[in-house]
Write a structure and sequence with these properties.
The chain is of the alpha+beta class and 536 residues long. The chain has 15 helices and 17 strands. It is extended and about 190 Å long.
């Protein structure tokens, strides 16, 4: 192998040495130009394309956009011109950034009305509006289909005609979207898409946006002002996500392990969560007095005082009576006084307001069921070696023991599931089975196996023969036509007879030296022919 490698190197060197200095420079220059051209082409093709994604009218909005792009890990460029901030991003990030900005009520820069103006005198304003609507539908369809879990999208808008009236300006737009999903879509993702579409349409809310999948499942129906159907659909989506999270936790602790030390080989988990989506608000009032006091702080106080004096106005005695028939007591007076005080005290008060979260899991009324499988391997070769089969064959043993066998589940497994999900152990049901797996011993090689080996060897031999012939053909050199000394000297003498002078060297020697200097390749070929004749 080293000799062949050295021969290849020598052959390359001989091929390179047969060119003169000018030819070598031209070849090197050509290779350099080609390499430079390829490098420039690769740079131009792979260079990211920057597009304008958003324009901020003030520094506050620019700061919000910059924060969103930075948190999302997107590369961007910011340019400021006369108080206006323009953000540019890579073209491949356009869809993700548009959804990110739209879900945060920041409109992104996309196609404008100029993209649908054709300059025709026959185009009316209504035609332009329809073209703009079709273009918007196409843009949203293209953007949605770039999402990882969306295979295709069908987008339809209803945009009121702008006829200049106040009603047309205040009437909201509607959007219906049908998605063909390649994977599940979370409620948060559907809500983000709806917010993004609402922002592009100019709607203040997502009330008029509906998103479904090709199976008829409601993915989104309204936002903050959602209808009853939309709320029910969203609640079901939240419940499915919560149940899927619990299923994953149970599988992680029972059958999925990076170290291969799982308790079971396979598990099936079903969760039934009792979730409360009622928005409940509770207030608790607690009254108390400060330490060392018998009443609270004085809030208000009122007081009232009155005095009364009464007596007889006539002459004392009996003078004023017509007939003195009885004795009247002399004049007497009486007086009275009243005081009233009212005091209002404020007791110390503590108000506790509790607002229960929507989608709270009631663990006590939730349940979970797990069916766990442990694979038991029966190796025919090992069982035959240990004599475990007895008089029966392995096929007979497999037929008699192919049924699953239910096993006892330990309390520690139930406690582990309860701890991972928060569901009480009394509501955890686990079934465990041993599943027999029969491993038949490897059979002896048959004729087809040997035929495959023979065909592989033949293919390798043919490849080796082709390589050998190729190397052998490269080593063979064409035998150059023998040139006699007399012909060479005669031709040289005819061409350069005038240049030969008289000196101490013979004319033949001078001619040979001159021939060798001017024609080194021909001289080398001549010497090689002589050597072949002498040593042939």
């Amino acid at each position: 192998m080293p000799e062949q490698l050295q021969n290849i190197i020598n052959r390359i060197r001989e091929w390179w040495d047969k060119y003169d200095r000018r030819q070598k420079i031209m070849m090197i220059s050509a290779v350099a130009v080609v390499a430079l051209t390829i490098g420039i082409l690769v740079f131009v093709v792979t260079r990211p394309t920057w597009i304008t994604i958003a324009t901020a009218e003030d520094a506050k909005q620019a700061q919000s956009i910059e924060q969103l792009l930075t948190d999302g890990g997107y590369q961007y460029e910011k340019q400021e011109t006369a108080g206006t901030y323009t953000f540019r991003i890579h073209a491949e990030d356009e869809t993700d950034v548009s959804i990110l900005l739209g879900s945060n009520n920041i409109p992104s820069t996309g196609y404008t009305i100029n993209d649908v103006l054709d300059g025709s005198f026959t185009s009316t304003e209504a035609d332009k509006q329809k073209k703009m609507q079709v273009l918007m539908e196409y843009n949203y369809k293209t953007a949605l289909e770039k999402q990882n879990n969306i295979k295709s999208a069908d987008v339809s808008f209803h945009i009121p005609d702008d006829d200049g009236t106040l009603i047309a300006n205040t009437e909201p737009s509607y959007a219906k979207i049908q998605l063909e999903l390649s994977d599940t879509m979370t409620a948060d993702q559907a809500a983000a898409i709806a917010k993004w579409v609402a922002t592009g349409l100019g709607n203040d809310t997502t009330e008029n946006i509906t998103i479904i999948d090709t199976n008829g499942n409601m993915l989104f129906s309204g936002g903050e002002e959602a209808t009853a159907a939309g709320i029910a659909s969203s609640n079901q989506a939240v419940k499915r996500e919560a149940e899927a999270d619990m299923v994953k936790k149970v599988k992680d602790i029972l059958s999925e392990s990076d170290t291969g030390m799982a308790i079971y080989d396979n598990t099936r988990v079903a969760v039934n969560l009792d979730m409360n989506f009622d928005n409940k608000k509770l207030q608790d009032y607690h009254y108390y007095v400060d330490e060392g006091q018998t009443q609270g702080y004085l809030d208000s106080e009122t007081s009232a005082t009155s005095e009364n004096v009464n007596g007889v106005a006539g002459v004392p005695g009996t003078d004023s009576n017509d007939d003195t028939t009885y004795v009247i007591q002399d004049a007497d007076t009486s007086s009275s006084s009243t005081e009233e005080f009212t005091r209002d005290y404020l007791p110390s008060e503590t108000i506790t307001t509790t607002e229960e979260g929507v989608g709270k899991v009631n663990a006590d009324s939730s349940s979970i069921s797990v069916v766990a499988y442990r694979y038991v391997n029966y190796d025919q070769e090992i069982m035959e070696k240990n004599g475990e089969l007895g008089d029966q064959t392995f096929e007979q043993y497999a037929a008699a023991n192919s049924d699953m066998v239910q096993t006892q589940v330990g309390d520690d497994v139930i406690q582990a599931i309860s701890g991972a999900t928060g569901i009480p152990a009394a509501n955890v049901n686990v079934l465990s089975y041993d599943v027999p797996m029969f491993i038949y011993k490897t059979s002896q090689r048959d004729l087809m196996d040997y035929l495959e080996i023979i065909m592989a060897l033949l293919i390798l031999a043919m490849l080796g023969f082709v390589v050998f012939r190729t190397l052998r053909r490269d080593e063979e050199e064409e035998v150059e036509e023998e040139v006699s000394v007399e012909k060479l000297l005669q031709s040289q003498e005819e061409e350069n007879l005038e240049e030969i002078g008289f000196n101490d060297k013979s004319e033949a020697r001078i001619m040979i030296e001159k021939f060798v200097e001017e024609n080194p390749d021909a001289a080398a070929a001549l010497l090689r022919n002589w050597l072949n004749e002498d040593w042939g």
